[in-house]
């Protein structure tokens, strides 16, 4: 263990000269990527349902075991289109404990997100609490497979069926993950993936709607392209959600390297788990070894009474060392605008969300991070917690 006086908060030099990020992009095979870029330029077909996008869609659909993949420019627009294509209106039940885009995609089209609490063990929607929030205006539920750990799909399906609601999923974190042996992508009426730069497989920016529903897929395709059903023929209100060819090229190249990215993520997750296991008050979330996981997020929960430091104090110590740990997803979507002003009482039914928003943080992982860096991050936390009283007094 380090001498605590060498920590940056006590005036020592930073452990990292450059910031260590959560969400540093994984980069696949550069040569293949450049060759694909060359093909795109040679073809002079840059966007609008080009061959690279088609190949990307076919690959994602195959790996996810679904009939349709509609590639979209990013996950947020994919959510908006999926919600519209599924015909949601009025109120839709969503977790507050998610990236704010899940709620924004509803509010953007004047559908009220109704915030539901999550299960403390899984951080995902609690079906019993969803049931309790259904009103005559509710038309749907959007579960979020947070950290890539799939929701209680069967529990949500049961509520949706009994209440006559449409069930959708924000699967932004869960590409190549499974539940009970079934790949994410085919649950509910449709699911959305994100291929943003910070996701383990990225397309620079990118998203996708996955579904086995032919009609929903067709509507999504129309909406992605202004509602055009052929030259000069618009049959729908549409938007522009098209993925470009360069993004699809990056997406395909990323997917080819997915096994290596997953291996790096898993190695880091195991290392963090091993190193932090002995520290009081810190627990790293688990992934079910019987399922397919992408291990992208290394998420830690802090019990401040046992650790002697709060989550925010630990993050402050890490930041001072240039480790940019993230407080995902604090403070909870319901405490962000416009929800904070429009739904000031939402927090009363969200006790678990409020607690998680104060106790959870994410650590750097992925192929841009090496084992030595993970060890150094763990050294910092170990030293800080072993000297918690002195560190707390110094902050
Ligand atoms: N639903 C869920 C559950 C989501 O998590 C997300 C996205 C969405 C929906 C929406 O999908 P998209 O429309 O984004 O496809 C980041 C991402 O921007 C966002 O995509 C992601 N979730 C969220 C979890 O993380 P921020 O606000 O944390 O981004 P930012 O700019 O702070 O970047 C995160 C870290 O990554 C920083 O330390 C910098 C580093 N970074 C970032 C980029 C873009 C790099 O090192 N290189 C880069 O190129 O939201």
Q: Low-confidence segments, ≥5 residues, pLDDT <50?
A: none
**Can you identify the CATH superfamily of the largest domain?**
Type I PLP-dependent aspartate aminotransferase-like (Major domain)
> How many H/I helical runs?
15
Strand order of the largest sheet: 2-10-9-6-5-3-4
Computed CA radius of gyration, to the nearest angstrom: 22 Å
What summary fits the major beta sheet?
A: 7 strands, mixed
Bound molecules: ligand T4K
CATH topology of the largest domain: Aspartate Aminotransferase, domain 2
CATH class assignment of the largest domain: Alpha Beta
Distance between the termini: 20 Å
Query: What fraction, in percent, of the residue positions are helical?
Result: 25-40%
Rough outline: globular
């Amino acid at each position: 263990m380090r001498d605590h006086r060498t920590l940056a908060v006590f005036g020592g030099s930073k452990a990292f000269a450059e910031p260590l990020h959560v969400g540093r992009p994984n980069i696949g095979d550069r040569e293949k990527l450049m060759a694909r870029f060359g093909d795109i330029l040679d073809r002079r077909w840059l966007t609008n349902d080009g061959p690279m996008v088609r190949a990307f869609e076919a690959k994602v659909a195959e790996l996810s075991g679904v009939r349709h993949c509609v590639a979209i420019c990013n996950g947020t627009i994919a959510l908006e289109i999926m919600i519209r294509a599924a015909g949601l209106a009025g109120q839709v039940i969503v977790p507050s404990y998610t990236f704010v885009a899940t709620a924004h995609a509803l509010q953007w089209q004047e559908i009220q997100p109704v915030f539901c609490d999550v299960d403390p063990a899984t951080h995902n929607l609690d079906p019993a609490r969803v049931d309790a929030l259904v009103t005559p205006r509710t038309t749907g539920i959007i579960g979020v497979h947070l950290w890539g750990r799939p929701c209680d799909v069967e529990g949500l399906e049961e509520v949706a069926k009994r209440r006559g609601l449409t069930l959708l999923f924000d699967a932004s974190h869960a590409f190549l993950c499974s539940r009970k042996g079934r790949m994410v992508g085919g649950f509910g009426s449709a699911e959305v993936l994100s291929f943003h730069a910070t996701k383990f497989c990225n397309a620079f920016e990118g998203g996708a709607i996955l579904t086995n529903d032919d009609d929903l897929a067709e509507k999504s395709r129309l909406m992605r392209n202004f509602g055009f059903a052929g030259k000069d023929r618009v049959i729908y209100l549409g938007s522009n959600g098209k993925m470009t060819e360069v993004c699809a090229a990056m997406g395909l190249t990323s997917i080819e390297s997915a096994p290596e990215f997953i291996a790096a993520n898993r190695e880091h997750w195991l290392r963090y788990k091993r190193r932090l296991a002995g520290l009081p008050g810190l627990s790293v979330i688990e992934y079910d070894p019987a399922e397919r996981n992408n291990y992208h997020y290394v998420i830690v929960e802090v019990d401040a009474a046992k650790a002697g430091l709060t989550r925010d104090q630990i993050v402050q110590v890490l930041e001072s060392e240039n480790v940019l740990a993230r407080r995902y997803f604090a403070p909870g979507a319901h405490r962000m605008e416009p929800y904070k002003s429009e739904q000031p009482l939402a927090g009363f039914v969200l006790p678990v969300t409020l607690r998680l928003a104060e106790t959870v943080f994410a650590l750097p992982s992925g192929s841009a991070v090496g084992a030595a860096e993970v060890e150094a991050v763990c050294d910092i936390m170990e030293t800080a917690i072993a000297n918690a009283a002195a560190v707390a007094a110094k902050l």
